[in-house]
Design a protein that fits this description.
By secondary structure, the chain is α/β, with parallel strands linked by helices. Helices cover 31% and strands 16% of the residues. The strands form 6 sheets. Strands 16-20-17-19-18-21 form a 6-stranded mixed beta barrel. A 5-stranded parallel β-sheet has the order 3-2-1-5-6, sandwiched between helices. The protein binds ligand MGD (2 copies) and molybdenum atom (MO). Pfam families: Molybdopterin, Molydop_binding.
Length: 574
């Protein structure tokens, strides 16, 4: 619809705020952005790195496999400045300073090379750029890295030796890696570690950026990305564009489009005048809310297609009531690359319609070619035919349990668990070394705390769905921030006190909770509370490669709000 009907490549989705930097690094180094193996494959690993992931809250199903693996003897290495619950199961938990992963992993790479713990044959036969990597990490002895990361040298050595001596080692990572202005560099370091030690392409090894939304892998595969058509085929390649022009019966824009945050910036400049938002709530989920408010208000025309009246929909000229996953048929591709058919269990409520049906009707009314679909199966068939990865998959072959892509024989096989056994889509894997650089905005006397934002088990992102669920709201109904008891004491704060948290962009008020999870000088705020929206505080500075904002690091000030006392109310009465 965007490419054919609106004639632009300005189409993007939530990966931009999520794993865009991981995908940028994976595409650059091995030529594929998806996981190299499933999370269940940890059953075959003897070491697993878990970097910047709070899996017990955010990937509870995967987390049960991680815990089972730990019980069986798999050594979990948990790297996170904010102690996640999985640290309880870890062989080693490393509390590095936020935003210092490049220094940390360069130290690990340095030590693995120094001790000769790398896979010389794998490096020689399947990679390129080793000498450059070696020259870069030479400057990051564990001692130097430990200073940058606020750690003991021994912690870095221990991770290097444990990973370097593993038979089968696997690397999982989450938003703590990707959501930084150096997110792509963070991911490059993890990929280098895996390539250096040949820990990919065999059972129990590999790269697994844990994907978030139920169908975010599917949305990426389907080409909701400004630079590529479905299956990561570049819009700038004339031969590829020609194939899509033939399939869709129209000329297509040869220029890559804008990304999520760039689109908001363009709206503010009045370069983008209209917006169609489907199943996203950017007023609450994009960084720097005040800027987003101005951008949405500056639009000439805004359409929101959602299952609830969202904060973003308040700005809309037209709100189209869509259907939830309970009410429709369609495929979802999960973090494992598993494509599954969802089937309806409820009737559509009120005037709600199916998402694809709404799009097709708009396409037909605009007189755009190619929207004559009457069955969802045919939409999927068109998509699968234009890709390599989904070839052979259809509603018939997917069956009840779905298939992993790629799947050579969808009738008889479940699909390929372990990818890259012999080579990478790029041929050789490329080492792309990275130098440590500090976050965009460092703490200062005026803004002395580091704010990290993230999630809760009980709520889904902006809370449009979960905050309407009374069972979940009963457990977590009130905005709060986590702080270390020692930091609270220094500010004279008690559990439950109201605080104001202020950054260079804005201020919110919420309650404070004592927790040993945050590091010293850090504060954690979930971004689900519209009444105390964390993104009022966050910065819209972007990683130059992945174009992802730095959700995991902002400088803030924390102040106790003066609570009204009995004496105040007496004073007021007098
Ligand atoms: N209940 C629930 N589950 C969800 C979601 C939800 O909203 N609610 N959202 C889904 C989505 S879309 C996603 S993307 C996933 C996200 O799942 P996760 O990746 O687990 O997301 P976060 O909680 O944002 O952050 C993960 C971890 O990064 C750590 N971190 C922060 N800064 C740094 C750093 O500098 N270095 C390192 N190494 N770590 C750091 C944080 O302390 C935190 O433990 O969850 C999915 N699952
Ligand atoms: N500060 C901070 N901000 C963040 C993050 C962070 O860690 N910190 N994480 C970022 C990440 S990783 C992500 S993925 C984004 C998520 O950001 P969003 O995707 O904007 O967040 P959601 O609340 O999941 O919004 C999804 C919307 O889709 C609607 N919806 C659900 N099902 C359907 C459907 O079937 N059809 C239609 N049409 N609509 C539907 C829901 O009601 C909801 O309004 O947030 C990002 N923002
Ligand atoms: Mo996400």
């Amino acid at each position: 619809m965007v490419r054919v009907g609106f004639g632009t490549n300005n189409v993007d989705h939530c990966t931009r705020l999520c794993h865009a930097s991981s995908v940028a690094a994976l595409m650059e180094t091995i030529g594929s952005g998806a996981v190299s193996t499933t999370f269940r494959d940890i059953e075959n690993s003897d070491v697993a790195l878990l970097v910047g992931t709070n899996a017990t809250s955010n990937h509870p199903v995967a987390a049960t496999f991680f815990k089972q693996a730990a019980k069986r003897g798999c050594k979990l290495l948990v790297i996170d400045p904010h102690r996640p619950q999985l640290a309880d199961f870890a062989h080693r938990y490393v509390r590095l300073r936020p935003g210092t992963d490049v220094a940390f992993f360069n130290g690990v790479l340095h030590e693995i090379i120094r001790r000769g713990l790398y896979d010389r044959q794998f490096v020689a036969e399947r990679t390129e750029g080793f000498e450059r990597l070696k020259a870069t990490v030479e400057h990051y002895s564990p001692k130097v890295a430990a200073q940058l990361c606020g750690l003991d040298e021994q912690e870095i050595v221990d991770v290097a030796v444990t990973w370097g001596s593993a038979r089968a080692a696997i690397c999982f990572w989450g938003m703590g890696v990707s959501q930084h202005v150096h997110g792509t560099d963070n991911a490059r370091c993890l990929i280098s570690l895996v390539l250096l030690t040949g820990q990919v392409g065999r059972p129990g090894t590999g790269l697994h950026p844990l994907r978030g939304q139920n169908n975010v892998q599917g949305a990426s595969d389907a080409g909701l990305i400004p630079m590529v058509f479905p299956d990561y085929q570049s819009v700038t390649d004339p031969a590829i564009r020609g194939r899509f022009e033939a399939a869709w019966g129209t000329q297509l824009d040869p220029q890559p489009g804008l990304t999520v945050v760039e689109i908001m910036h363009a709206a503010l400049q009045k370069d983008v005048r209209g917006m169609y938002v489907q199943g996203e709530n950017p007023f609450v989920s994009d960084p720097n809310t005040e800027k987003v408010r101005k951008a949405l208000a500056a639009l000439d025309f805004l359409v929101v297609q959602d299952i609830f009246m969202t904060e973003t929909a308040e700005f809309a000229d037209v709100v189209l009531p869509a259907s939830s996953f309970f009410e429709k048929t369609g495929t979802y591709t999960n973090t494992d690359r598993r494509v599954q058919i969802g089937r309806p269990v409820l009737k559509l409520p009120g005037a709600a319609r199916l998402d694809w049906d709404i799009m097709c009707e708009i396409g037909r009314r605009m007189g755009v070619p190619g929207f004559e679909f009457t069955r969802i199966e045919d939409v999927f068939a068109e998509f699968a035919a234009l890709t390599e990865s989904y070839r052979g998959l259809s509603y018939e072959t997917l069956g009840l349990e779905g298939k992993l892509w790629p799947c050579k024989d969808p009738v008889h096989e479940d699909g390929q668990v372990v990818l890259f056994e012999r080579d990478f889509p790029s041929g050789r894997g490329k080492f792309v070394p990275a130098e440590f650089a500090p976050p965009n905005e460092l703490p200062s006397p005026e803004f002395p705390f580091v704010l990290t934002t993230g999630r809760l088990l009980e709520h889904w992102h902006t809370g449009t769905m979960t905050r309407r669920a009374s069972a979940l709201e009963t457990i977590e109904s009130e905005p709060y921030a986590d702080m270390r008891p020692a930091d609270m004491a220094a500010l004279g704060l008690l559990e439950g006190d109201e605080i104001a948290v202020t950054s260079r962009r804005g201020s919110i008020t919420l309650k404070v909770r004592a927790s040993e999870a945050p590091g010293a000088g850090s504060i954690f705020i979930p971004f689900c509370w519209r009444e105390a929206a964390a993104n009022v505080l966050t910065s819209d500075a972007l990683d130059p490669f992945g174009k992802i904002p730095e959700f995991k690091f902002s400088a803030v000030r924390v102040e106790k709000l003066h609570a009204p006392t009995l004496a105040d109310s007496r004073g007021a009465a007098e």
